[in-house]
Design a protein that fits this description.
Two copies of one chain form a homodimer. Chain A is α/β, with parallel strands linked by helices. Chain A is built from 13 helices and twelve strands. The N and C termini of chain A lie far apart (81 Å). The structure holds a DNA duplex.
DNA sequence: CTGAAAGCGCTTACAG
DNA sequence: CTGAAAGCGCTTACAG
């Protein structure tokens, strides 16, 4: 039988009101003496507050919900770590829900769960919400923010990402600086994220007078297989590949090895993400490394602002190029 | 303003009792006609039930809580996928909480959160609960199960793991069958899991007449660094290394490469876990592959049994050896 | 098939 | 500094 404040009230000969005040430390509304008694008895009884009751009466929750995709995104963990860190500091609880990335049904289910619980805010990580579901989210009135996805065509929806255009641009320029002219970008999809990365790539190419062949842009879904296929398809048409995720880059690296192509001597490979995966392979992959943990931290901070009724802006964070050994100077074609 | 059943009752000229029955589909307690009206109005009003209220009155929840370690365990995702799959089928919600592995404070916080919400069950993945915290969990009266950790000295606490002893035993025998005699096991800790794996290793060695040198058993915490360090330390004292996790094995593999040691020609490497990580590196690592998804599925099923008041047993699941290219026949010493 | 009523465990104006 | 009371949104015996 779980103890309630009623039990504590009985034991201490105080009212439930006073017990409640003491347990919530409403300073000034109780005496030191009562407090001591109550805390003592609460401990003896192993009292645990009932969140359902608290939330029902206060109509607000101390819970942040995080929705992540159930498919393998190897960076979600890092974002969550950032979220946890800030949440802990602010005394908030975090619950995580898996939702399929492309399955509107599963998205809806996760969303319903979260809305039923009237959490104080929702952070959506790397999920393209189906538009009906985005509508549900909006109408719920619960503050939300998209992390690591952009959705630029909707003014009400803020997001936090790394500067995708600049990552594409800078990474491509890094390869160009190493003497590469025939460069492919592999594994981006047709979402904003993908378009921006490709946009950055194109601008860098064009600024340097290189017009990409059609097949230098290989679309995909940021997967290992996208990278592997591209290598086989492109063969020696390019001297460098920019993978739009670490997974793409590793897929490309392994396929190259399996095809007897030497990385980086015959083919340079670079990636966008820069998770530990790039350190687990040999050669280590040079990457535009996103500040995932910061995305999570800023996410919570912005969400709290929104919950306070403040206007917040979408954020595009910076990044850095972390070098591995997967990019070589292109001797053959350098001037 | 969120709609409640009261609003629906007013609009439909029915009582809240009837509305509640219809919304919960208590067949037999309402007419088709009323049902149609209620459902219609509920939709119009965008009604979402308030879980806090439901849980307060029914005193039970439809939520399974999953506690995972915040440190990098690359297999937790797979277990969670299994959990999600079964939970979805049973109409349960899953919430995930991160808790530090070695930080009793963080464990306590996660535990409190979960107990406050009186979830229907708790699944603890790969966390060694500090004993005070285990006590808290027990006293809460909430059914729980440990996944991928064993805690054999406590009869009240059930767990689901892969057969750790047999994994150590079979993997070692696999290496012995390939002509290896000087074999190290690296990265196990002093928990039950670690002891069992090492126990299996020792038995296989001894049965084949090989007495392990002291330094062939390198303790650790299943980390990349454990693997890397062991390679440098052991040099050519052994011809094969059994990593107690994929991370250990990859660390060993990379350090070997960095030290100019050829895998598998000069050193064979094997691992326990068998996640996708073993497929991302070259050579692919031969591994005793745990059925993580099944662990998750069985976890939910057993938890539900427990919630029904049934007695459940701890489970030790089978596994299979998945071959890569990281183990070679040891020519030099084979008879 | 339907409704009135009690109650889940808590918080918080209001009054003293 | 303390208490009595109302009420959060829902479910469910009980009575009809």
């Amino acid at each position: 039988m779980k103890a309630t404040i009623k039990d504590i009230a009985r034991e201490t000969n105080l009212s439930v009101a006073t017990v409640s005040r003491i347990l919530n430390n409403k300073t000034g509304y109780f005496s030191e003496k009562s407090a001591k008694k109550v805390l003592q008895v609460a401990k003896e009884l192993g009292y645990q507050k009932n969140s359902a009751a608290v939330e029902l009466v206060t109509k607000k929750s101390q819970v942040i919900a995080v929705m992540i995709s159930s498919t393998q995104t190897n960076f979600a963990n890092h974002i969550i770590e950032g979220i946890q860190k800030v949440a802990l500091a602010k005394g908030l609880n975090v619950i995580i829900l898996y939702a399929g990335e492309d399955d509107p049904e599963l998205q809806k289910k996760a969303l319903d769960t979260v809305i039923e619980r009237s959490v104080m805010g929702i952070l959506v990580i790397a999920i393209e919400l189906e538009s009906g579901n985005l509508g549900v989210l909006k109408r719920s009135g619960i503050p939300y923010l998209l992390l690591s996805t952009s959705h630029t065509d909707d003014a009400d929806t803020q997001f936090i990402t790394t500067d995708n255009f600049k990552m594409g641009y800078d990474a491509t320029n890094y390869l160009i600086d190493h003497g590469h002219k025939r460069i492919a970008i592999v594994g981006s999809d047709h979402s904003d994220t993908g378009r921006l990365r490709i946009g950055g790539y194109e601008q860098a190419m064009v600024e340097n007078g290189f017009i990409p062949d059609d097949d230098w842009i290989q679309y995909g879904h940021y997967t290992y297989t996208d990278g592997a296929k591209a290598v086989t398809k492109l063969r020696s048409k390019v001297t460098a590949i920019l993978g739009s995720s670490d997974m793409v880059a590793v897929g490309a690296l392994n396929q190259a090895k399996d095809n007897g192509i030497n990385v980086p001597a015959d083919l340079s490979i670079m990636s966008i993400d820069g998770t530990e995966l790039t350190r687990f392979v040999r050669p280590r992959i040079t990457a535009a490394a996103q500040p995932f943990e910061t995305i999570g931290e800023k996410g919570v901070e912005q969400l709290l602002e929104k919950a306070d009724g403040k206007q917040v802006e979408s954020l595009q964070l910076g990044f850095e190029i972390v070098e591995g050994e997967s990019v070589a100077v292109n001797e053959k074609e350098s001037e």
